[in-house]
Sequence to fold (226 residues):
Amino acid sequence: DAKTTQPNSMESNEEEPVHLPCNHSTISGTDYIHWYRQLPSQGPEYVIHGLTSNVNNRMASLAIAEDRKSSTLILHRATLRDAAVYYCILASNTGKLIFGQGTTLQVKP
Amino acid sequence: GAVVSQHPSWVICKSGTSVKIECRSLDFQATTMFWYRQFPKQSLMLMATSNEGSKATYEQGVEKDKFLINHASLTLSTLTVTSAHPEDSSFYICSARDFGRAANEQFFGPGTRLTVL
Fold:
């Protein structure tokens, strides 16, 4: 399973945009890029996913590099409720999600 | 989004007893469910892939005789921790894949906190 690399932690101010980077240099052509987030003592929550093109939904935007070796999750206006661990995961067609250590996002009021 | 439930949300048991955890997809059919384990301050570790009507596929290092998985219907998978010991205390999380939706999108349950005394 292809691996992803994320910074251990990031900080943001409330109501400011946040860019969470992810490197996945060994991504294969059929791997989807998924982002999930997890609050303490809860199951992960789906955020967004993409294959090649940038994606937008009500929660976030996903910017995928042209060579697909990196991607960035963008939270347009961080709120205190966005404080969580964010996981960038490559998903093959088997459906298996292999979680890395993720990025712990702190949002300061 | 789709809803996945787990029962119980927490359980405390004595060492040597068996504990069953249920995972249900409430509003969609899930031919595939996944079971994860998470220790404090660590990431989720995939334990096994549960396929409806067939045997589960376990990840390397996960004892299939200790963690029994049954996926008898399209909406229910169960994980039984047999002869539980304190080292099995963990946060167990299931997820379900909705093949009717976008590729590979998974929905996670809220987790079950197991404490073995």
User: Anything to note?
Assistant: The radius of gyration of chain B is 13 Å. The mean pLDDT of chain B is 92. The first strand of chain B starts at residue 4 and ends at 7.
